[in-house]
Amino acid sequence: MKTQHTPGEWNIYQTEKGYSIESTSKSGSLIPIAQVHRFYANAKTNAKLMAAAPEMLEALKDIRAWYENNHEKYFGTYTPVCFSKGLSAIKKAAE
Q1: Domain limits, the chain
Q2: How big is the chain by its Cα radius of gyration, in Å?
Q3: Based on CB atoms within 10 Å of each CB, which residue in 10, 52, 73, 86 is the most buried?
Q4: Do 44 and 19 contact (CB within 8 A), yes or no?
Q5: CA 15, CA 38: separation in Å to the nearest integer?
Q6: What residues in the chain have per-residue pLDDT under 70?
Q7: Residue-wise pLDDT tens digits, 29-56
């Protein structure tokens, strides 16, 4: 599956208005992803969560691949709730 989001590591920069989530292009220029205004009580935490999203998505995809190759061996026909939640999160991010 091809990546549909801005590739690369997403970083947080504090700005005058709050926090900026940005990636860096191959040429070195900054690519803006999102802004989180400082007026929100959880602004920094929300920015951290957004910046971690690409890494979390990749981790979930790795877990999905493991599950697809091993679920019958370890779980039979049972699907643990944590795998169901992970699969739902991947679907939500990819649509």
Answers
A1: 11-94
A2: 17
A3: 10
A4: yes
A5: 9
A6: 1-3
A7: 999 999 999 988 899 999 999 999 999 9
Residue with tokens 């679920």: 71
How far, in Å, CA of 26 to CA of 30, rounded?
10
Strands 11-14 and 30-37: unpaired
Measure Cα distances from 25 to 8, 14, 31, 58, 73 in Å.
8, 19, 7, 19, 42
| DSSP assigned state of 34 | E
3-state secondary structure of 32: strand
Q: How many whole angstroms separate alpha carbon 27 and alpha carbon 33?
A: 17
pLDDT of residue 65: 93
Beta strands in 1-95, from DSSP E residues, in sequence order: 11-14, 18-24, 30-37
pLDDT at res. 82: 86
